[in-house]
Amino acid sequence: MSTVDADPAVESQGVKTDDLDVTDAREAHVGEMTVRRLLPLRSRRSVGAWCFVDHYGPMSVDGVAGMRVPPHPHIGLQTVTWLLNGDVLHRDSLGSEQMIRPGQLNLMTAGRGIAHSEESPAGHDPLLHGVQLWVALPGASRGIEPTFAHHAELPVTGVGGFAVTVFAGSLAGARSPARMFSEIVGAELAAPRDASGGVPLAPAHEHVIFAATGLAQADDVVLRPGQLLYLGPGRDQVAVSAPAGSRLFLLGGVPLGERLLMWWNLVARTPDEIEAAVADWRDGRFGAVAGYDGPPLTAPPLPVFKTNP
Predict the structure, then answer these.
(1) What residues have CB less than 8 Å from 122, skipping those under 6 apart?
(2) Cβ(103)–Cβ(153) below 8 Å
(3) DSSP label at 47?
(4) For residue 275, what pLDDT is reported?
(5) 271 closest CA partner among 261, 285, 257
(6) pLDDT tens digits, residue range 42-54?
(7) Closest residue by Cα to residue 118 from 126, 128, 209, 12
């Protein structure tokens, strides 16, 4: 997905301790879609290497265009596309064209630079619901060659009545086949019936939990869609419960330990990297995205960059 937001103005809400914090999403706009933007926060730019979390839907796209995100560039990150309902067509400047459906993983590694588009296909499903996640590539890997991978089958395990699909890293004995570049975990927890149990955590990781459908209760904190619970390092499990029909996400990883500069669709370390990428996009050096019926996005005007404290 694409974003033009530069500095999210989100502060902590409700419960907050040294290792537990609840924040509310803010509304953001991607084309004609309104999304819940849960990360980044002004107070927290990343959780592990996860640096961006958008939750959209469920929304009716019956008889309308649905998702339509024109070609746009990325550097320095991996995009993780995950659907709960609907279908989305991915195209990129490597020549990839891939339909994604619920329970499948689209993983695009931008590295030194890639462009892509995302749109609801002709004859698309009438309901659209999903999450778009970004993973910051660590400094040593951020200039690698771009790649695209689609994983139609992923490991599913059970924890306390939850069906846990692991799409990044490993959790509860299940490991995703996706190639990641830092120690992270990403999983969907679906409750086909009322579910409750202790979800194992890696003590070296920090984590976040959010509800996409229904409710979640984690460490006695109730979460509704649009809220994000942060759990600091040092925990080996979290008690999670949810009523039937709920679907939750757990993301985590070893704290990145690198200062990120995020602007538009670019994850970098310095303003010079951002400015070079914008020039490359303007001058056509990212390559074309074939098959998309419409013009690419134009980069917004560059801001005066500030150094984050």
Answers:
(1) none
(2) no
(3) B
(4) 96
(5) 261
(6) 888 899 999 999 9
(7) 128
d(CA 102, CA 82): 7
Tell me: pLDDT of 308 over 80: no
How many whole angstroms separate alpha carbon 294 and alpha carbon 218?
Answer: 44
Q: Which of 138, 241, 137 is nearest to 189 (CA)?
A: 241
Between the alpha carbon of residue 178 and those of residues 105, 119, 184, 206, the distances in Å are 9, 23, 11, 20
pLDDT at 65: 86
Q: Map tokens 């509860």 to a residue.
A: 172
Cβ-contact 31, 67 below 8 angstroms: yes
In angstroms, rounded to a whole number, what is the distance separating the alpha carbons of residues 256 and 134?
13
| 308: CB partners within 8 A, 6+ apart | 45, 259, 261
Question: CB neighbours of 119 closer than 8 A, spacing ≥ 6?
Answer: 65, 66, 67, 68, 69, 88, 89, 292
The helix (run of H) or strand (run of E) holding residue 74 is strand 68-74
DSSP state of 278: H
User: pTM of whole model > 0.70?
Assistant: yes
User: How far is Cα 146 from Cα 75, in angstroms, rounded to an integer?
Assistant: 9
Band of the pLDDT at 1, cuts 50, 70, 90? low
Tell me phi and psi for residue 153, to 5 degrees.
-125, 130
Q: What is the pLDDT of residues 83-138, one digit of tens each?
A: 999 999 999 999 999 999 999 999 999 999 999 999 999 999 999 999 999 999 99
Which residue carries 């799409």 as its tokens? 167
How far apart, in whole angstroms, are the C-alpha atoms of residue 285 and residue 278?
10
Distances (CA, A) of 116 to 60, 75, 236, 249: 24, 12, 38, 25
Q: What is the per-residue pLDDT across 179-192, written as a single tens digit (0 to 9) for each?
A: 999 999 999 999 99
Q: Quick one: which of 178, 184, 188, 179 has its CA closest to 158?
A: 188
